[in-house]
Design a protein that fits this description.
Number of strands: 16
Low-confidence stretches: 88-102
Strand content: 5-15%
Number of helices: 13
Distance between the termini: 50 Å
Structural class: alpha/beta
Order of helices and strands: HHHEEEHHEHEHEEEHEEEHHHEEHEEEH
Largest sheet: 8 strands, mixed
Mean pLDDT: 88
Helix content: 25-40%
Radius of gyration: 24 Å
Length: 464
Amino acid sequence: MPLAAADLPLPLDRSAAEPLTAQLTARLRAAIRDGALAAGERLPGSRTLAAALGVSRTVVMEAYAQLYAEGWLEGRHGSGTYVADVHPDPAPAAGPVPVDAAFADAPPDGCVDLRPGIPWVGDLNTPAWRRAWRQAAEIAPSGRADPWGLAGLRAALCEHMRRTRGVTCRPEQVVVTRGATNGLDMLAAVLRPGDRVGVEEPGYGRARAVLEARGAEVVPCPVDEHGLVVDALPEGLRLIYTTPSHQYPLGGVLPVPRRQALLAWARRTGTLVAEDDYDGEFRFDVAPLPALYGLDPETVVYLGTMSKRLTADIGVGWLVARPGLAAAVARRRLELSDRTAVVPQEAVRLLLERGDLDRHIRRMRAEYARRRAVVVEAFAGLPLRGEGAGLHLVVELPRDLTERVTAAAAGEGLLLDSLVRHYAGAPTAAGLVIGYGATRAALLRDGCRRVRALIDELGGGRTG
């Protein structure tokens, strides 16, 4: 049960010059810091508290929003607003975390995970989520693998992509995959071994690994602060893999003129463009740019996934291509016995058709914007890249300082990622790739503060 509004230590002075919202924010913050409000306690609803204090509901909502952004409060969808645990447990006494642990899939207990590419799933267990899975489990099992995926899901994906990403396609152009990387793997499987394939440099290491495993000759292609550098693309490529919505890891958003130049180059050279719509729906400065696919459906293969929109555990993604190529990918999947589990497909279909996914994405866009603000504030004064979109940003630092900070942070139970790790060749930039989706907001705030302290301590004023 929530605390009674009358029990909260929140005296407000209407004669003071300080606005009521600022007063309420300060009183709540002090109550949490001093322990008068304990971690996990549920606060009254905004209407209830406003009535008890004799203020407008807007005053309470704005105070809650500010404390939510600072990490003092956390929301649990469908059940209210709760006091966050702002006193994180110390790292376990077993000793420092090995630096290599920063690149493992699961963080050790007691660590603060600031690695990129991991969405926040703490608010995912909603009634809509549970209802979709219960109903999806009733789908009849099939003894025959369908390499295309469920027809209902492919139709729902077409509608979703049309509304949210500017992708117009038909169900027969959609292959349901197990994620964007699986889609790239199946696309690579229809290429000839030895084909030259371009990958952004720095770029997504798993994409390089998938393509190399299929026998492709992977060619690094440089990026700058805007994304792929079209003028520097080599000739003789059969495919180029790119992340134009939020370049991984530098964070650039490929501008429209460069998108047009990329497609003109691809048409001239006969190169396929594999567009990984990484973080495409999470942009904070302006509305998300439509997907590259919408400019040239004959040249672009569009790869999407639910891993950032929902969770990687769901194992559902999609590949969109011209009909002949989509059919070739489906045939290859059948030959390789590669398939997507049916129950997760049905659950995603239900979430799409009922609008639950759209509502979740809107909530998470607001959540990630608040988290981004926490990270930007923590690293204010340092050169940042990619802060306008996605679930991560880059803090540029000298390479030697990056290495010292990463090692020291691991000793304190802080998991960090280095920009250097994302280069296939000689790095041309260095710094920390800070993800803000993996951990709770209060721990994110504390973790970033501690990392900034290490930078200041070890950098000796040399951070650029």
